[in-house]
Amino acid sequence: MSYLKEFKKITTQSLQIMKDRDEKISMLTCYEYSMAKLLDAAGVDVMLVGDSASNVIAGHETTLPITLDQMIYHAQCVVRGTDRALVVVDLPFGSYQSNSEIALSSAIRIMKETGAHAVKLEGGQEVLESIKKIVKAGVPVMGHLGLTPQSIYQFGTYGVRAKEGAEADTLKKEALMLQEAGCFALVLEKIPAILAGEVSKSLRIPTIGIGAGVDCDGQVLVMHDMLGINTDFHPRFLRRYANLGEIIPQAVKQYVSDVKSKGFPNAEESY
Fold it and tell me: In CATH, what number is assigned to the domain containing residue 64?
């Protein structure tokens, strides 16, 4: 694939070039070394070390429990397995909301301790000063508007956001604010496709959609969802590209059977 040869290393500038020439950006979540190597070799442009690790790795109901130290650990693992992709790390709940100094400290820890390339944080006007301070310190920031999972208890639902005029207008304004604050890209989660298209056209920076339609400049999914590892999650926006939730148990059952029947190891598999 020609794009793999062109971008030997994806940077924030690479994403801007992709938007400018209408080449879509691919992004997946990743949390560990072995999978990072596979995703990187397959040509994923951006790997998001998401706070969704709280759900799919740790088994929590929400993203809120995961800590900054845990996010740093996952990011270290992903960076070691990555040669080409841009690695973006979520700032977890509690690591940036209280004030901009704490936000900057959290972002610096991630950059220094993981070798990642950027951070992501959720919210609009309320986190504007934190974004400005982090960007001013030289750390690239990806924004996130629409459904922001760290605010789930405030929303009370994982339903589509910005369906009504007032909330849609606010989202448009905040998207421009985040761009002017220095964000290099913006995630739009679970908002109407028409609105996402309007926002994407209004911004200079790339948008990455999840449940936000095809007119965003790129798309992101949670790796465990799109590979069918997590079988309990069935949102409308999710396309499963594999069914590892069936394949893995079948393989393990065969292994257990072979061990029990003394079929493994055989003579060729023994020293």
Answer: 3.20.20.60
